[in-house]
Design brief:
alpha+beta; single chain; four-stranded mixed beta sheet; 10 strands; 2 helices; 144 residues
């Protein structure tokens, strides 16, 4: 077994947040992630089948690093999920309706090229950068 052949394709990621209730409102109510176990210092979330944890810290300094990709400034670091195009469009509409301030608004990247995809970037209430994307052809996720 290696990292390219998962038996159950799940990922664990923990990020710092400065306000658990703001995180609960954002990840639970806006993104629609089911809440799992929690304490007064952390919350487990089901982020599309992945174990995502928000850990309470005193402060978070969002990095000001960006990388140019397809004419946009992509925030680095960032994390996210890959959805189907239909799931992407539904989430994009939900985020737009919630008044999300996008770092990069939903758009189609690399149209007509290998790796064609829909993408959007936004930040959680603590400044963590999130990318959600959907490939036109899922077989192109690792296109070269």
């Amino acid at each position: 077994m290696d990292c390219m052949t998962p038996s159950i394709p799940r990922f664990h990621l923990a990020v710092p947040v400065t306000d658990l209730e703001a995180s609960r409102a954002f990840y639970g109510a806006v993104l629609g992630c089911p809440e799992g176990r929690s304490s007064d210092r952390w919350i487990d979330w089901n982020l599309y089948g992945h174990q995502f944890v928000t850990h309470l810290v005193d402060s978070v300094k969002a990095p000001d690093a960006f990388n140019p990709v397809d004419g946009h400034s992509v925030p680095v670091p960032h994390f996210g999920v890959l959805l189907s195009v239909d799931e992407f469009q539904v989430l994009a509409e939900k985020l737009e309706s919630a008044g999300t301030d996008f770092v990069i608004a939903p758009y189609q990247r690399f149209a007509g090229e290998p790796g064609e995809q829909w993408t959007m970037f936004f930040r959680d209430p603590s400044g963590n950068a999130i990318e959600v994307k959907a490939f036109a052809d899922d077989a192109q996720v690792f296109a070269v």
